[in-house]
Amino acid sequence: MKKSTSRLGTSVNMLCVTAFASVSLSIALPGVAHADDVNAAASQTGMAVAHPFGLQAAGASGLPQGLVARVNGVDIPAAQFENALRAAMGTSGQPDTPQLRQALKGQLIARELFRQNAEKAHYDTKPEVQQAMNAAKVNAETQLYLKDSIRPEPVTDAQVKARYDDIVASLGREEYKPRVIAVADEATATTVLAKLKSGTSFDALARQYSVAPGRASGGELPWVSFKAPLAEGRTQGLPLAVAQAIMQLPAGSVTPAPIATGEGSNAMRVIVKVDAKRPTQVPSFDQAKDTIRQQLQALALEKAAAQFTGDLMKHAAIQQ
Fold first, then answer.
1. Whole-prediction pTM value?
2. pLDDT digit string (tens) for 204-240?
3. Number of domains in the chain
4. What span, in angstroms and rounded, lies between the C-alpha atoms of 81 and 108?
5. Rounded Cα–Cα distance for residues 87 and 17 (Å)
6. Cα(97)–Cα(106) distance, rounded to whole angstroms?
């Protein structure tokens, strides 16, 4: 049922809007290099670390407890090192090894040396640095203010169950695994269809020509299901004509002609392929409830953010 949960989660995702990101308190080191590369560089610059884990006990290196290094009298705390370690493991997926710890400690030492020498050369007074500092300050204080000020309504168990029931009621007896290629003009659509007929794979043509979000995955869309009869607003976020084509196509087939969608600057020509069909697989409420709750919470946060912004604008003197 894992795929079914993912499919139902995808249906909910169509309603979700990305909300404000929380403030990150971890240290971001620029480009965590491979440990061997950093160790080699550290050896050449005299910054190699003797202790493999970097966290030496007091007395072993002459450092007080809680420090990993002291660079020209400036302390590098163990907490800073641990934050850097967590960030490196989270972004690169590297395991916690003595080599990684040694490499990170070398980077922290190198960065502190760079900072000290940059300040000695008065780089801190350069306009570019001042602008960057001001921008970072504005971003940090704004994000923290929004995090503390926006209060979304809590999502109740009843709301989660009602949303689950709505989604289940919107599903048909079958579900479909489609691919789409969306292009901006008829000429390109004609070219794509001609290449499909000559044997070029749908996947390759989607990557080459499509402007739809699924381009990088060969035009692949998640499993979808539609309640018959189809109507606007009941097509899982797809254009009505595209949903109709998905329902009508046999598995493995492609629309013989491009489907026109949108108007004006939003006009598109869409070519659809259905990879597979199967009876609709519906996850249980227990399987789906956490995903639905998260999406409803995101919607509640979006609503609260919009209301908060509107209230601020009502009481502000704004000239445009």
1. 0.58
2. 999 999 999 889 999 999 999 999 899 888 898 899 9
3. 1
4. 8
5. 26
6. 14
Residue 259 lies in a domain: yes
Which domain, by its residues, includes 182? 172-279
The SS3 call for residue 108 is: helix
In a domain, 245, yes or no: yes
Determine, yes or no, domain membership for 24. no
- Answer for the pair 97, 85: CB distance below 8 angstroms, yes or no: no
* 1 has pLDDT over 60: no
CATH number of the domain that 201 lies in? 3.10.50.40
One-letter amino acid identity for 45? T
Return the closest-CA partner of residue 261 out of 235, 288, 287.
235
Residue 117: both structure tokens together: 């020498």
Contacts of 154 (CB under 8 A, 6+ apart): 300
Alpha helices (H) in 98-171, listed in sequence order: 98-120, 127-149, 157-169
Residue-wise pLDDT for 90-135, tens only, equals 877 778 899 999 999 999 999 999 999 999 999 999 999 999 999 9
**Contact (CB, 8 A) for 81 and 105:** yes
Determine which helix (DSSP H) or strand (DSSP E) holds 15, and give its type and residue range: none
Instruction: Give a yes or no: residue 79 inside a domain.
Output: no
Question: Which of 215, 189, 176 minimizes the C-alpha distance to 270?
Answer: 189
